[in-house]
DNA sequence: GAGAGATACATAAAGCATTCATATAAATAT
DNA sequence: ATATTTATATGAATGCTTTATGTATCTCTC
């Protein structure tokens, strides 16, 4: 399971079914790489490919139940690990972090837009 | 320049000359991968290999001037990019971030120890 | 001191993820 | 109707990494 595969599954979990070309742009890889990646994950049962009635060229990539379960399990694992780290902080430290969450979220948003910009 | 190469250069910048096996452990790759990586970077002029008088088996990997310059340029690029993001925050947001820096640093430290633990 | 076992690193082959090049089909523009 | 663009598939090449293995050196035990 490569980084790009995992990221692609997370993207699908977040945003729902996407075209292969969309996913390639979002994940910063070439279209053929995404085509192969999707095929491998389809064979693993994590995603399925569907056509698009409005455009016969398009393949829509959708998470399967197994795929969704996989993503959510991984996400929960990350959340749990983070919680364990947070548990080791002092109350003051936690408070400061909580107070900084809006700023951190804003930073993440700005960074995300930056990445989109630089890909265009 | 792979992620592992860049990370290895940063490690050398931070910690000084290291053995190939140390670097492999630190960067989470196998020893042969690190051997090859170091050779490639040596050929690029970014590192040099030195023996160790106390143990003839050992190769110590050291940054060259060009390597140091490369690492510091990349670091500054990252700092500049981050500063541009910070410039887009409100004063309140910046304040909250500054107040949270000790907590963030502590988190990073804990996470770093976690990673070391899981590699052993 | 000799030999066994462990350690450090080099080298080759294999595997995996990705890009580049190209082809086919469908959609859009002229 | 034709030219151009878009969406995706496929094959070949490339780069990074792991696995397997070999050589040299060091350390420990007898």
From TrEMBL, chains A, B:
Domain HTH marR-type span(s) in chain numbering: 1-106
Pfam families per the UniProt record, alphabetical: MarR (PF01047)
PANTHER family given in the database record: CONSERVED PROTEIN, HTH-TYPE TRANSCRIPTIONAL REGULATOR RV0880
Name this protein carries in UniProt: HTH marR-type domain-containing protein
Species the sequence originates in: Fodinicola feengrottensis
Lineage: Bacteria, Bacillati, Actinomycetota, Actinomycetes, Mycobacteriales
